[in-house]
Design goal:
single chain; about 400 residues; alpha/beta; six-stranded mixed beta sheet; six-stranded parallel beta sheet; 14 strands; elongated
């Protein structure tokens, strides 16, 4: 009898221990499950926008952290941020599963008036030339607005060209000292001209350095009026551009008002350096410009083509022939700085692009129709693998080659 009683007591004690451990575990799962479901939903929304599936995971992380407080998965080569830790609660997300900046305890104070030093910051590593700078700064402005951050920027010639607003400009040493502290993370865009939707949900409680080229309209086009306002040329640049266009068109004898179509012809470095040819930077030939000019000549009246180029000899030798065939007028901008030529092209009624980011931005700032060279980049080339045309060229622009 005594042995039987002892065995029964031992079994009851085992069950007691089991349930003692099981109940807290189930409560923990119950508390964390809503947050995990929202994180998974957030990831699915990001992937759905890009037409991807969340079942395969390849590649390497694109965001580096010194603190080790978050997990980064790269899903189908798209960096997707998954947040872990005490920073997130159910209030951190809205009904769609997106990060809710207003109800996020880490960034809630940034929506209140306060010194700039307390605002989470975002910046971008400036590299290359003017057109690339504009893509980087536009992506930074849009990401700052979407994630509730303050923008800072390192020295760039753009500050002398555009009237940038609400961006703190630091000198080189100040920017370096600020961004090398431990509370900064690096967000890499990935491919040069392939949209990365992970920029919509940047890590909270950390300042962000954007690294890469961000050459896609999808980063900022939803707020185009504000981007165009930011890239308003300074008065001196605008005045020089107006004078340049007026001088170029003054010789054209048309009694009525004219329709100005800007043409950018890029030659120069892209022709001389074999690097560009190897990587798929095919330049448009005279046939492309003939087709594009014919389109505008037939559609509009009193057309005058205003050409900005770094290959004036080629342009005159070929575009003058096209103009004679079409019976139209073509004039050339000469002796101006790059920013003045861009401002002149942006003031045109319509635009014919060449290739490159300089040409892209002149077209984006132009208010009329845009024709782009669809032969860039060359299919199957190195650049062709880094540039997704649907992400680079706007859907309502007209492609020709």
């Amino acid at each position: 009898m005594r042995l039987s009683w002892c065995l029964t007591k031992l079994r009851l004690r085992r069950w007691h221990i089991f349930y003692t451990l099981l109940i807290p575990f189930m409560m923990l799962v119950y508390v964390l499950a809503p947050v995990n479901r929202r994180i998974e939903h957030q990831q699915d929304v990001i992937l759905k926008e890009n037409g991807e599936s969340s079942h395969t995971t390849t590649g390497t992380p694109k965001i580096r952290t010194r603190m080790g407080w978050m997990v980064i998965n790269t899903v189908n080569k798209i960096p997707v941020v998954q947040y872990r830790g005490a920073e997130l609660t159910n209030k951190s997300f809205d009904e769609r599963g997106w990060l809710n900046v207003k109800n996020n305890p880490c960034v809630e104070e940034t929506n209140k008036p306060q010194p700039e030093s307390k605002c989470l910051q975002i910046t971008v590593e400036i590299q290359s030339r003017m057109g690339n700078h504009m893509f980087m700064v536009a992506a930074m402005i849009a990401a700052a607005k979407m994630n509730g951050r303050c923008s800072i920027i390192s020295p760039t010639p753009m500050l002398k060209v555009f009237n940038l607003q609400n961006i703190m400009a630091l000198n080189k040493s100040e920017w370096k000292n600020t961004t090398t502290k431990s509370n900064w993370l690096i967000f890499d865009s990935g491919q040069i001209a392939v949209y990365n939707p992970a920029v919509k949900v940047l890590p909270i409680c950390k300042n962000i350095i954007l690294r890469g080229f961000f050459q896609s309209w999808k980063y900022f086009h939803y707020m185009k009026p504000e981007i165009v306002k930011q890239f308003t040329f300074r008065p001196k640049v605008q005045e020089k551009a107006k004078i340049a266009v007026s001088n170029a068109t003054s010789a054209v004898k048309i009694a009525k008002s004219i329709t100005v179509v800007g043409i950018h012809v890029r030659r120069g470095d892209i022709i001389k350096d074999p690097f560009y040819k190897r990587h798929g930077f095919d330049v448009p030939d005279a046939r492309y410009f003939f087709k594009a000019m014919t389109y505008f000549q037939k559609k509009y009246s009193n057309v005058v083509f205003v050409v900005a180029t770094n290959g004036i000899e080629w342009s005159k030798a070929n575009l003058n022939v096209v103009a004679n065939i079409l019976g139209t007028n073509v004039v050339y901008l000469q002796g101006n700085s790059p920013e003045v030529d861009m401002a002149a092209l942006a003031m045109s009624d319509h635009m014919i692009m060449s290739l490159g980011t300089y040409s892209w931005w002149a077209a984006y700032l132009c208010k009329g129709e845009v024709i782009y060279f669809s032969g860039y980049p060359r299919d199957g080339s190195i650049m062709g693998g880094k540039l997704k045309k649907a992400d680079y060229y706007l859907p309502y622009w007209i492609g020709m080659k």
